[in-house]
Design goal:
mainly alpha
Amino acid sequence: MESVKRFFREEEGVTAIEYGLIAALVAVAIIAALVALGGGLTNIFNKVTEQLQ
């Protein structure tokens, strides 16, 4: 019973989970930004490629 109480009192695992959730949210934000800007970036790179040829 004491080991169960000690398990719920430990905060190291909670911190790791919080950092994992923050990293996941940052990844989702980056993916969303890339999807939103994807068409515009493709057009810009195509124009640069045309100018270089």
